[in-house]
Structures are given as C-alpha cells and as structure tokens.
Automatic annotation (TrEMBL):
Pfam families: Cupin_2. InterPro entries: Cupin_2, RmlC-like_jellyroll, RmlC_Cupin_sf. This is Cupin domain-containing protein. SUPFAM superfamilies: RmlC-like cupins (SSF51182).
Length: 111
C-alpha cells in the first residue's frame, strides 16, 4: 500500500477487518502504519493458508479480526478466534495456520 493511501486513513473511524479483502488460495496484506518504531499490517488468509515457523527480532502483537486460526508459539498450540490477541515474543519461534478464512492485525514494536 502506498504511503499516500495510508495517510488517507488518518483521523477516520475504521473497521480493520474491512480494510483487507480475502483472496482465494492466498494470503493478502495491507500495511496501515509504517514508522521506524513499529508498524501495523492487516492480513487475510484463505482457508488452509498460513505462515510457516519463523522468528522476528521484535515483539509482535496479533489480534484476530475475523475467523479462526491455530497459532504455535515456542512449541505451544493455541486456537484463536475473532477478538482474541496474542503476543509473540522477540526471537521466539512462532507460526500460524487458518482453520477457517481469517483476518488479523499484526503490530510490530521495534526496539
């Protein structure tokens, strides 16, 4: 998403789940904030899509906006649904997979 489009979102009441559309057979994303101190990115995952296990150098906050997914953090499995949030600690392996189509907000806090 171009910076100009992100600027258009400022000062408006938003429903985050409406800002990223589902796309058949894939994962879609839309960055709504990107600053040196952190970013907020929205994702939509089609059924059976996910992100493989990885680590990130920063803490990340994931909030489910729609649907259901399964999340793994440091070997522990969690089922998550709309309205639930989890914090992925920096440098800890994590992954996620769609149970149904789902949307999420990812907030990265850089140190």
């Amino acid at each position: 998403m171009a910076k100009e489009n992100r600027t258009e979102l400022r000062g408006k009441v938003l429903r985050l789940a409406d800002l990223v559309a589902y796309q058949d057979g894939t994962v879609a994303s839309r960055m709504i904030i990107n600053k040196p101190v952190g970013s907020i990115t929205l994702f939509s995952f089609d059924e059976d899509e996910g992100l493989s296990e990885h680590t990130a150098p920063y803490d990340a906050v994931v909030t489910i906006l729609d649907g259901e997914c399964e999340v793994w953090v440091a070997g522990e499995t969690h089922q998550m649904k709309e309205g639930e949030t989890i914090v992925f600690p920096a440098n800890v392996p994590h992954a996620l997979s769609a149970i149904t189509r789902f949307k999420m907000s990812l907030t990265m806090i850089r140190e």
